[in-house]
Design a protein that fits this description.
With about 140 residues, the protein is of the alpha+beta class. About 25% of the residues lie in helices and about 35% in strands. It has one domain. The protein is built from four helices and seven strands.
């Protein structure tokens, strides 16, 4: 039985010094995390953004280095097709000795309203990547 969903690849050029620390570019979502956390606490948000997960990771608007959790990044993306803002928290695989954590994995997924989007940027971490937005966006 498959234990995870392969989401895509992390772009090393967008993750600052973590490009030297991660042991793989592969990003997954485990069924354990999906069923025991995301669908339990963020089901509606997940259902709204699940088809855009690869786009959020590969073409984020902003990436934050989480202040409180080691080797954790927050990906933020305004998904124009559905006019929703999403936040995807990713735990990076940085320790070659930890076989169980040999892939980067999604911790949680949630939708963000404008106010919580701004609070996330202000309070949750250091901006390590910011997309150059067109003035018309």
């Amino acid at each position: 039985m498959k234990e995870y969903i392969n989401i895509g690849k992390i772009d090393k050029n967008k993750i600052s010094d973590y490009k030297y620390k991660i042991i793989t570019e592969t990003l997954i979502l485990t069924y354990e995390r999906l069923n025991n956390h995301i669908l339990k606490y963020h089901k509606n948000e997940y259902n709204q953004v699940k088809n855009y997960l690869k786009e959020i990771i590969e073409n984020p608007d902003i990436i934050l280095e989480e202040y409180k959790q080691k080797d954790t990044l927050i990906y933020l993306k305004h998904i124009k097709q559905i006019d929703k803002k999403a936040r995807v928290v990713v735990k990076l695989a940085t320790d070659r000795k930890e076989v169980i954590y040999n892939k980067n994995s999604i911790i949680t997924i949630m939708r963000q309203r404008d106010k919580s989007w701004e609070q996330t940027i202000k309070n949750k971490g250091k901006v390590i990547y910011s997309k150059k937005l067109d003035k018309n966006e």
